[in-house]
Amino acid sequence: MNLLERILVPVDIESNDFFYLEQIIPLAKGYDSKIYLLYVLPQEIMESETKDLAIRLVENELQKIGETYYTPQNIRFEKVVEFGKVYETIAYIGDLYDINLIVMSANSKSNPNQFSIRTERVIRESEIAVLAVKRNHPLEFKHIICPVDFSDPSLRALTNAARLAKFFNSKLTVFHCKEEAKFPKFLDFGKSKTADEEEELGIIREQVNLFAEKAGLYAYPFESVVKKGIVHEEIAKYVTENQVSVLIMGISGSGGLKRILLGSVTEKIMMSLPCHLIVTETLDILEAKLSQEIQTLETHFKLAESLERSNFLHEAIGELKICLHINDLHLPSYHALIRIYKKLGDDEKALEYQRYLDKILDLQEKKAIEEEIRRNFFFGDNK
Predict the structure, then answer these.
(1) Choice between 100 and 289, residue whose per-residue pLDDT is larger
(2) For residue 13, which of 52, 66, 50 has the smallest C-alpha distance?
(3) Which helix (H) or strand (E) holds 39?
(4) What is the sign, positive or negative, of the torsion defined by CA atoms of 79, 80, 86, 91?
(5) Could you read off the pLDDT of 313-360 as tens digits, one per residue?
(6) 3-class DSSP state for residue 224?
(7) Domains of the chain
(8) Pick from 121, 109, 325: which is nearest to 217 by CA?
(9) Which of 272, 285, 307, 382 could lock 312 by a disulfide, CB 3.0 to 4.6 Å apart?
């Protein structure tokens, strides 16, 4: 199953600074992705006599880059040369080629400690997720953090974070910060947390856990962290102190609205840039084609059934876990895992999957009741 099928990498040939092209090799190999190397020529060249020559020269340079970084790794790549304004063209090509992820440098060329203005503009212009790769930091997915504020954008971001974490077997932290005013130091009396504050944080943590379940985190371990303070400062502090590899954040709005207001927390995180950053407003960073996903799921489940009948129980468990990786709401896989673990005498594991199954069934029942209430309410209003 190919999830992250198409990655767009805009290239600044003049800068000769291609560290991010090399950084994404593990990601592209892991997902068997195709890389689209894009260079945007000024619109004026379209009208000049050197247009064809310019295209050939750029294509040759992109070919060299692809052969240097991707051919030795057996990664497929395609050269794309376009004309126009850089930011708008990157967004246009992303839509045209049905790109899953745009990858760019997070660092400014002139000031490596600042976030790239070019990358920030692309984030504002495009509705496709953007991965901003930080210089001098290996692109790893050992520890992923996703801040949530219980909004739809943060739910979409967490869904993507969960899928990446499952694929790379990463540690996943779901982070929430309760905004708290920052007082001057002379007004900070060093009060310790009261019992009421501890209880409040505990309640919020339960809300975070329920929110994570909505994003599909049933059978995958995650840590929920709740803090109080200035949101972007607490995020940056946690990232630094806990060796976080990738930070995934959601943003709201689209088109002109997003260009005006990207989101204060996201903008401040971009300025501090504590680690690699994925900014997304879509669910489909890792969406597979539905027909392909269903076909692959059925194949693994049928194989698991065959292995169980032949008493290859551990092998059957492996196939069922692949099914849950594809779709963690696949109820037949949970039932089969419970049954097989009982056969193996591993009651603890059987009980663990029974709990996951009970949670899913409970949520589905609640959803069905809510829909029934809405339906009755609607018809009641129209009698």
Answers:
(1) 100
(2) 66
(3) strand 34-41
(4) negative
(5) 988 898 898 888 778 788 999 999 999 999 999 999 999 999 989 888
(6) strand
(7) 6-133 (3.40.50.620), 143-184+195-280 (3.40.50.620), 290-381 (1.25.40.10)
(8) 325
(9) 307
